[in-house]
Write a structure and sequence with these properties.
The protein has about 190 residues and is α/β, with parallel strands linked by helices. The chain has ten helices and five strands; from the N terminus they run βαβαααβαβαααβαα. The chain is about 60% helix and about 15% strand. The protein has a five-stranded parallel beta sheet with strand order 2-3-1-4-5, sandwiched between helices. Helix 1 packs across helix 9. The chain is globular. The two termini are about 20 Å apart.
Length: about 190
Amino acid sequence: MHVIGTVGLPGSGKGEAATVAREDGIPVVTMGDVVRQETADRGLDPATDHGTVAQALREENGPAAIAERSLPMIENRLEGHETVLVDGIRSGTEVDVFEEAFGDAFTLVSIEAPFELRAERIDERGRDASEADGGEGLAARDERERGFGMDNAMERADVVVENTDSLEAFHDRIRSIVRGTDDEKRAEAEADP
């Protein structure tokens, strides 16, 4: 059993990492899907109200609410697969939930990229409403994510992937992580028996 969690600011490449995992036959649990479903259940628009609902869930049910709602989905997928990728961890509290549930079988991967590059990617994907269309700007999203404790989660990562090279190079690195062949993680494991 292996649970791989990804953490990173908006536009860093978490969705691309999930795509690589899916292409490799690894199921993905997207924590944002929990929020999108809750947003729809509340009769709100996921394109404009996602952040507000994520914050509300944490305020109403505690900072681990979204991670806790994700656990049954992860456990369900582990019944038929050796590895599961959890997309979109937002805080150290959420890391705690997964470390407690999966112990040494949990690996946290921080995906990082500079602000300007992330802003370009978000514009290109066209999934999020722009500030002009009532959405949230990237600086505001970063601030909200950091308010959840994302910096703490990123600092706790087992593996850091700088996503500043080509898409192909990024896919190759993620593929090596999800297949358990990542050199950095393997070197750490060998150094710490």
